[in-house]
Write a structure and sequence with these properties.
The complex is a heterodimer. Chain A has 15 helices and no strands. Chain A is mostly helical. Chain A has a single domain, classed as Up-down Bundle (Formate dehydrogenase/DMSO reductase fold), CATH 1.20.1630. Chain B is of the alpha+beta class. Helix content of chain B is about 45%, strand content about 15%. Classes of the chains: A mainly alpha, B alpha+beta. The interface between A and B is large, with 68 and 69 residues.
């Protein structure tokens, strides 16, 4: 046991709200975070939460089983709306994932120390969101067991993927993103896995964490390369995360459907992704810090900063909506104009105006520092924004497809009960994975928390260097 | 490797980062080279004190990996679209390079990232199931709040008695012999 309250004086630094509670030392940070994993079994709350989420996973299993048995006919998609919930949910989930990479990579490059206590679970969130996202296009294939046909390999059919299609770009972008996010997350975990190995109380736990830690011993030479590799990964992930949502937006922008064919899409999609992602990080962080008593790690300052990022990206998204309308008017194309009028005034107008309320009006509350400092208020805004971002994708995808160039081919769309079941099921999958993650892995990066402690500063007693 | 056998080296345990950085610097000045420090978090000054001033090979390897990945991705698309499965779409050229850029980019990033991770592990010699330093007393605390400096027995200046004396002068908590 690492005990011993240190004899070091209290840290004098005090500029702005704290990033980590004043009382913390190397030992207390390690203790506090690792005991969540290594301590006595999880409480009743964990079982209740995991159980509820797992029920939704069962629903997902049922919905997917039925889909495989009967085919995509159980969903609401049909001509002319061939992309429904599946693509809406795909874009929604993958967008949510982007905040994790943004926090871990871009904020690292920008030297933002406040990322330290939120990057680990934000990265986990990325992974799980990408897993949920990946399910949808896969199931939308109709015959998901033939998904490997999308990969370029010499085959007996003599065919190859069409590399001029954004859908093939998407396969490469999303799978690269999943692999790189996993590596980034795992590399970040290695030193903490070694901590868990060294502090494990049973030989079995020590063995499992030991295998995962791969013999990490904190050697200075290793740290040196490790930090370099981590920085390189951050540098590589930054353009990657921007490219992924850009490619996702190309799925739409490269087509000629009114409402999709717009050059504003890549930046507008990326901003929307970060917006939705930060909302989701808040949705996870606020209950986590309350239920595990982590207020001294995930401080108000973190919540305030995330709220500010949400406000900024929310404004960019609002600008994106304005630009779409400007394009519709300025293009002089009657189809573009009709598409926009149809959004505002057509059969889905209710959804459009809810979208405006959720994504444009709701974030304006974040101008108030009282709202930014109140976790419950932030939680509410984050929920509203998450719903808003889902509606945005609904409007872009469905409303554009229901009315194309020929009135004779117009049609309506709505999700069936199985669409909803699958969507809810993936939310259950996401939440269950998060519950498992906080149970078995340190949800805050222990070694990075150590580096921002005053105790970690190198204060050499001598004079000459 | 001479000197290997029973003793791996002498391990000094320190209580705070400042002391170990000074200790490492003094050991380097005293001519010791075969040594390493073990700490719960990265300490830049320590790497410098131990004589690590360069970035090493990793960045170059990553650049190479990225370039090879991007080139491989582009060639794959060229081969597919021009040689293996040419498809005339509205008379556009088969070698339609602008639409090959996204996949080229993704392949480059993927290979660079794989090189960064696998290269870091390989250069560090991980995974490594056994290492003698884990035999040192209290070494489990190297991942919590203790700082260790190990002068290895294979260092030409290593001497079981003299080196121990030297280390004991650097204000450690404890100096102990590490079995090999």
């Amino acid at each position: 046991m690492a005990d011993r309250p240190t004899d070091r004086p209290a840290p004098p630094e005090a500029h702005g709200p704290l990033l980590v509670g004043r009382e913390h030392t190397l030992a207390s940070v390690t203790d506090k975070i690792s005991s969540i994993v290594l301590g006595r079994g999880p409480g009743i709350g964990w079982y209740a939460g995991f159980g509820a989420a797992f029920l939704l996973v069962m629903l997902l299993m049922y919905a997917v089983g039925l889909l495989l048995f009967k085919g995509t006919g159980i969903w609401g998609i049909n001509a002319p709306v061939g992309w429904g919930f599946d693509i809406i949910n795909f874009v929604w989930w993958i967008g949510i994932g982007h905040a994790g990479t943004l926090i871990s990579a871009i904020l690292l490059l920008l030297n933002q120390q406040w990322r330290t206590s939120i990057n680990r679970f934000a990265e986990a969130m990325t992974l799980f969101a990408v897993a949920c996202a990946g399910l949808f296009p896969l199931m939308h294939l109709g015959r998901p067991w033939l998904f490997y046909w999308m990969m370029p390999y010499p085959n007996t059919m003599g065919t190859w993927p069409q590399f001029r299609s954004p859908l093939v770009w998407d396969v490469f972008a999303v799978s690269t993103y999943a692999i790189v996010s996993f590596m980034f997350w795992f590399v970040g975990l290695i030193p903490d896995l070694a901590t868990l190995r060294d502090r494990a109380r049973t030989p079995i736990t020590a063995k499992i964490y030991g295998i995962l830690a791969m013999g990490w011993r904190g050697s200075t030479v290793h740290w040196h390369r490790y930090e370099l590799a981590y920085l390189l990964l951050a540098g590589l992930s930054t353009p990657l995360v921007l490219s992924v949502h850009t490619v996702v937006s190309f799925d739409f922008a490269m087509s000629i459907v009114p409402g999709w064919h717009a050059t504003i899409f890549p930046p507008y999609f990326v901003a929307g992704a970060i917006y939705a992602g930060f909302a989701m990080v808040l949705l996870i962080a606020i209950p986590l810090r309350a239920s595990y008593g982590l207020q001294s790690f995930v401080t108000l300052r973190h919540l305030q900063n995330m709220a500010k990022v949400m406000l900024a990206t929310g404004l960019i998204v609002a600008y994106g909506y304005m630009t779409e309308f400007f394009f519709g008017w300025y293009s002089g194309s009657e189809f573009e104009g009709a598409m926009l009028l149809n959004r505002v005034n057509g059969p889905y107008a209710g959804m459009f105006w809810s979208l405006m309320a959720c994504n444009v009006i709701a974030p304006q509350f974040l101008w108030s520092s009282r709202v930014r400092s109140s976790p419950p208020a932030l939680f509410c805004v984050a929920i509203v924004v998450s719903i808003g971002m889902w509606l945005e994708r609904y409007i872009i995808i469905v409303v554009s497809l229901t009315r194309d160039f020929l009135p004779s081919s117009w049609g309506m769309y709505s999700g069936t009960i199985w669409d909803w079941a699958t969507f809810l099921g993936t939310i259950g999958l996401f939440v269950s994975l998060l519950f498992l993650f906080i149970r078995f892995l340190p949800m805050i990066s222990i070694f990075e928390m150590r580096t921002i402690l005053p105790e970690a500063e190198v204060k050499e007693p001598t004079h000459e260097g | 490797m001479k000197g290997e056998g029973r003793v791996y080296g002498l391990m000094a345990e320190f209580h705070d980062p400042g002391t170990i950085v000074t200790a490492a610097r003094r050991a380097y000045e005293a001519g010791y080279r075969r040594m390493d420090a073990y700490t719960p978090f990265p300490i830049e000054e320590l790497a410098e004190a131990l004589g690590w001033h360069t970035r090493g090979r990793l960045p170059k390897l990553v650049l190479l990996g990225g370039l090879l990945g991007a080139a491989g991705g582009y060639l794959l698309q060229y081969y597919t679209a021009v040689i293996a499965y040419p498809m005339n779409v509205g008379g556009r050229p088969l070698h339609s390079w602008p639409s090959f850029i996204p996949v080229t980019f993704e392949c480059g990033i993927l290979m660079a990232a794989l090189t960064a991770v696998l290269g870091m592990l390989a250069l560090n010699g991980l995974p490594q199931p056994y290492h003698p330093v884990f035999n040192a007393p209290n070494f489990a605390l190297a991942s919590t709040n203790r700082f260790f400096l190990c002068i290895e027995a294979r260092d030409p200046r290593f001497d079981a008695v003299e080196t121990r004396k030297f280390l004991e002068n650097l204000c450690p908590n404890e100096v102990s012999e590490v079995a090999g």
